[in-house]
């Protein structure tokens, strides 16, 4: 693999034998696993460990951002794999910028998780979770009357 910081390497579309090199395969695995994991957690924000530590709204927002970042990275990989290069999207610089975006996103999530206030304690008594003490007498609802027989 050539120097990834060489400008000629970054701005030259890959040839057909350079499309599936070691970097591309690792890139595909990382971005595909990241996208699938973010999509799974987005639709199940209460799963462990995220549901116990963070609020559901924060988990869904973070997963939404992660799906966009990983999805754009998969788009650049697909352009590289098909070798169509519209608007120079097949150049390696876009894949390296996607890797940089994942690093920045991870740092941003770590800072946001560190600055998050601790979750509020949940009152648990008598085997159920309520916002207050359990009721001693059940609440009776009024009888529903059928209005069609009047």
Please state the structural category: mainly alpha
Radius of gyration: 25 Å
Record the strand order, biggest sheet. 1-2
Q: β content, as a range? A: under 5%
The major β-sheet equals: 2 strands, antiparallel
Number of strands: 2
Low-confidence stretches: none
Helix % is 40-55%
Number of helices: 5
Q: Could you give the distance between the termini? A: 85 Å
The backbone outline, from C-alpha atoms, is elongated
How much is the average pLDDT? 81
Sequence of secondary-structure elements: HHHHHEE
Can you walk through the features of this model?
With 150 residues, the chain is mainly α. The protein has a domain at 20-112. It is built from five helices and two strands. A two-stranded antiparallel ribbon has the order 1-2. A hairpin with a 2-residue loop joins strand 1 (124-125) and strand 2. Helix 2 (22-43) packs antiparallel against helix 4 (56-82) and helix 4 (56-82) packs antiparallel against helix 5. The radius of gyration is 25 Å and the shape is elongated. 11% of the residues are buried. The model has no long low-confidence stretch (mean pLDDT 81).
């Amino acid at each position: 693999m050539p120097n990834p910081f060489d400008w000629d390497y970054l701005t030259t579309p890959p040839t057909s034998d350079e499309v599936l090199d070691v970097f591309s395969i690792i890139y595909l695995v990382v971005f595909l696993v990241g996208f699938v994991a973010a999509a799974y957690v987005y639709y199940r924000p209460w799963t462990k460990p995220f549901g116990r530590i963070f609020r559901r709204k924060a988990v869904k927002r973070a997963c939404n951002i992660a799906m966009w970042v990983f999805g754009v990275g998969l788009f650049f990989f697909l352009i590289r794999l098909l070798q169509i290069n519209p608007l120079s999207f097949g150049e390696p610089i876009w894949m390296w910028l996607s890797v940089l975006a994942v690093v920045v996103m991870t740092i941003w999530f770590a800072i946001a998780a560190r600055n998050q206030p601790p979750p509020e304690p949940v009152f648990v008594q008598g085997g159920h979770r309520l916002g207050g003490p359990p009721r001693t007498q059940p609440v009776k609802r009024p009888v529903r009357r059928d209005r069609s027989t009047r």
